[in-house]
Amino acid sequence: MRYNFTVRKWWVWILVLHFPAVLLAVSPQKTIASTRVTPELRASLTADYLIDVVVSPHDGDAWTRLAKRVTGDAERWQEIAAFNNAGDNLTSEQRVRVPLALLRPELQRQIVATLFPRDQLTDSGWRHVIVGGAGVEGESLWNIAEWFTGRGENYAAIREANSNQGLSTHSGDVILIPRELLTAAFGGEAEGRNAPKTAEARKTENDPDERPTADANVADATLEVSPAGLPSLTYERGAAEPFAVYRLQKGEALYSSVAIRFTGRVYAKDVGEVLGRIEKFNGIDDVARMPVGYPVKIPMELLLPEYRPADDPTRIANEATKRESAKLARRTRATGLAGVRVILDAGHGGRDVGTLHDGVSESSVVYDVMCRLKKILEKRSAATVSATRDDRELFTSPRYDLDEDPVVGVNLRWYLVNSLFRRSIKSGTAREKVVFISIHADSLHPSIRGAMVYIPGERYVTGSYEKSGKVYFARAEVREAPVVKHSEKESLVAEGLSRDLAESIIDEFESHHLEVHPFNPVRDNVVRDGNEWVPAVIRYNLVPTRLLLEVCNLGNRRDRELMKTKEQRQKIAEAVYAGLVDFYDEREDGPVVAASR
Ligand SMILES: [Zn+2]
């Protein structure tokens, strides 16, 4: 590496680059470009090539609330207040400046996409096209390093990667920021200043929406899909029916890349309905002939919470629950699953075959997977394992014949599990060491492949519930405790622990080269026919760490063919086992930063 710039330039650099706040404070900036990112947030590229982000507080806002909205973390308020030389009180007249690097990654991306419209992501990294001004120097390598890598010091590495580039830049120059230097906001893995500080690090790392998809990798010619595969939406909130706009990428289809991804619909009928609505809303008559870049308008109310604007109340509430549940969920370590109690449930059974495609019945394949998993656990781990059923009966006392009512069969399952849970606790097992896994196979839109996990979303698990009737009270498990109740705290803990286990299992599916649902492999509710709920077997269940695993989509031909083979079913059992081991192995108490995928 050679540094052949002058001392004088160094000096100027240090002055300009290390005191941006001072410069902002003393001089009203001329701007090169400016954009309103959300109704409250405006970003500008100043004549000094600084990205100036200004937030207008809401009426009655507080520092913590503002910090949470724009950075994702309420605790960052002090950093922001200090940056503004402000006191503890925030008024709606104040204009609050926020360093770009502190913003939520998606806001950073949106700002950069607008201020630098010619930038793009390529396989080797981020290509930044210098905006500059006519005849004068453009934005400095230091600035570029700060924006995209989170550290100005990386300018040297950037320079090395652009061997023909002098230290100064001029309008139209193209600077490559190598992929390994990029922060998560721009698709890399470098720790930016917005890097999560706590347990949610794991969540963000594994955020299903940020998983790169094949489609996203193809779409490197524009900024609409971010490097990390997180698609970028713009919002039109003033419209009679507010909507988001998504630009179709190369190789993307409306049903998968828009309907399935952004609205969370997975059942064929629901996907069809949503698609029809989107077509009508956009006045599209030929779906097959939509050009790349077509701006698809999606009615806001159809969007999953995570795709709504950063200040949308549903999204904020959703994120708050995730954060809270992650905080409360304290895993315990159990090497080799010592002292762990695993309760396995194969879905359906008896006359309830579950979904049936081309002669492949859900109940029989999932029973087979369950038996394989049980065997592995008994052979290789120190866990105690029990199952809820064999191929004919449920193991209540007395047993329940699965050729009878399937609905009763489901309800007796959670009564049985709750009874097993109580017994485990009584015999001294820690609550966190009991696990419940219900194994199913999906019947979704035929285009979708792979595994998906449902966990009990806190907001769906409230109040108390009981069943009455002879068939129930004939069983010891029901008489023992007919009413099931969850406190809010229990539901939060359950969501957090269950999400962690679900992510461990999904990670292991990927490591075992098993197909995983492309958009949202971990879900806290089912969406179907316009309703949202948590499946009964985990909804009324008391085991804190519990989930329903859909091992594949039997509605997809490829998944179905594979599922017919012993090898595939064994591989799935191995992946679930590995997920369980990881979950109890990875950490003791407290937060952990997950290893990268
Ligand atoms: Zn099922």
**Widest β-sheet, arrangement of strands:** 14-11-17-24-18-21
Number of helical runs?
20
State the share of residues found in helices, binned by percent.
Answer: 25-40%
Mean pLDDT: 84
Strand content: 15-25%
Large-scale geometry = elongated
Which molecules are bound besides the chains? zinc ion
Architecture overview:
The protein is of the alpha+beta class. 37% of the residues lie in helices and 17% in strands. It has 20 helices and 24 strands. Helix 6 (141-149) crosses helix 7 (155-161) and helix 17 (488-511) packs across helix 20. The protein starts with 6 loop residues before the first helix and ends in a 12-residue tail after the last helix. Mean pLDDT is 84; it is low at 1-28, 197-229 and 587-597. It binds zinc ion. The site of zinc ion has 5 residues, from loops. Zinc ion is lined by residues 347-348, 354, 362, 440.
Topology (SSEs and partners):
Layout: H1 7-18, H2 20-26, E1 31-38, E2 41-46, E3 51-55, H3 63-71, H4 77-83, E4 96-97, H5 105-115, E5 120-122, E6 125-129, H6 141-149, H7 155-161, E7 174-178, H8 200-205, H9 214-218, E8 234-236, E9 243-247, H10 254-263, H11 268-282, E10 295-299, H12 313-328, E11 341-346, E12 356-357, E13 360-361, H13 362-380, E14 384-387, E15 393-394, E16 400-401, H14 406-426, E17 434-442, E18 452-454, E19 464-466, H15 470-473, H16 476-480, E20 483-485, H17 488-511, E21 522-523, E22 526-528, E23 531-533, H18 536-539, E24 545-553, H19 557-563, H20 566-585
Parallel strand pairs: 11-14, 11-17, 17-24, 18-21
Antiparallel strand pairs: 1-2, 2-3, 3-4, 5-6, 6-7, 8-9, 9-10, 12-13, 15-16, 18-24, 19-20, 22-23
Helix pairs in contact: 3-4, 6-7, 10-11, 12-17, 13-20, 17-20
The structure holds zinc ion (ZN).
Zinc ion binds at residues 347-348, 354, 362, 440.
